[in-house]
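Continuing from yesterday's entry. The apo prediction looked reasonable, so today I'm repeating it with pyridoxal-5'-phosphate included to see how the binding region is handled. Same sequence as before; SMILES copied from the compound registry.
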Amino acid sequence: MEYHLQTQAVHAGREDFRELGVHAPPLDLSTTYPMRSLQSGRDSIDQLSAGGAQAESAIYARLHNQTVFRYECAFAQMEQAEAGIAFASGMAAIHAVLLSMRVRDLEDVVKRNHIVAVRPIYGCTDHLLSCGLLGFDVEWVTADQIGAAITAQTALVVVETPANPTLTLMDLANVMRQAGAVPVMVDNTFATPILQQPLTLGATFSVHSGTKYLGGHGDVLSGLVATNNMWAARVRQVRILTGGNLHPMAAYLLHRSLPTLPLRVLKAQENAILLAERIATHPAIAAVYFPGLGASDPTDIVGRQMKGPGSVIAFEMRGGFAAAAKTMDSTELFLAAVSLGSTDSLIEHPAGLTHRIVSQEGRNTSGITEGLLRIAVGIEFVEDLWQDLKQALDTAFAAVAE
Ligand SMILES: Cc1ncc(COP(=O)(O)O)c(C=O)c1O
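Holo prediction written out below.
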């Protein structure tokens, strides 16, 4: 029987609990594992180092861990993916996908060194692609220029939707059409699999900072990749060799957060819809960027590609940097802090913080101005949130008008 995503979130990765006689996922903290015989150990190493998901012996925790694997399977189910691969952070996950383009057995792909990417995108992803550290030749284009930018050397197309920090939306069907046979990596952090499942739309990779909604409580740094079995084998090989593994305790916490993921995402979204409408009417505001507002979603991505607008809002202050700083420094309930997707509400200044590392040119292209603020709406009582935001906006408006 096919269950609703909300039911799957509660039960995924727990299918064998009756058989095991447990009601919470077993937490395996081993760093090394016994093998039945030397021959079994040799076979297991061969399987795991070729990117296999599991083997008779886990051998060593950098190769496999049962608690992590259990969560990976649950996460893959949420994304409707063949496989999930967990990492120590979102950046480790993105790094591994990029490096998987170079895994040796893909002779044809190894020769390809060109990446086509679209801004805006999370600041460190932007910098990782731009700074040359990994040796790829990266070409930044607009969403409509992807097809024209692709050459025989293109290994990967990189997009993020909704994009950090301006919530810019991308029509993934259009991206896939342009990409053709070239794999597409979608950063799905802001939407979560509850609102958007990129693999069902033709993406090869859906990546997440699990630190955000998947963890959901601000206490687990993590990254996830959802993909098909062929690419999963390559991504696992990169993980074995570069060691950006997720700690089993972190996987346990992620798994603990999964049953409430739909509830948290939907409640925060409900709050955000109300706040976005109210923010738009405040005299201190020049523009609001939120997929739930018509102007931010001219092609009806919400409803067609996403089940809802999510719960991150960006807005431009009329008074520029001074007004943005005053607003951020005046909130009490909204915590002045980077990150998002936690139960509590956060406020941050992208140009000064999350996207500070991006080049000035990149920030200009991305619409990241000094007057832009980003809020991540939590699951608090919405009127308390509005009261706090309104007093901060009033304070900024008065200060800048002086
Ligand atoms: C959209 C997006 N992708 C990736 C990352 C990187 O994830 P992490 O901080 O877990 O490494 C972030 C972090 O803020 C993000 O917002």
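Comparison notes:
- The first helix runs from residue 5 to 11.
- Residues 89-91, 122, 124-125, 160, 164, 187, 189, 209, 211, 221, 223 surround pyridoxal-5'-phosphate (CB under 6 Å).
Will overlay with the apo model tomorrow.
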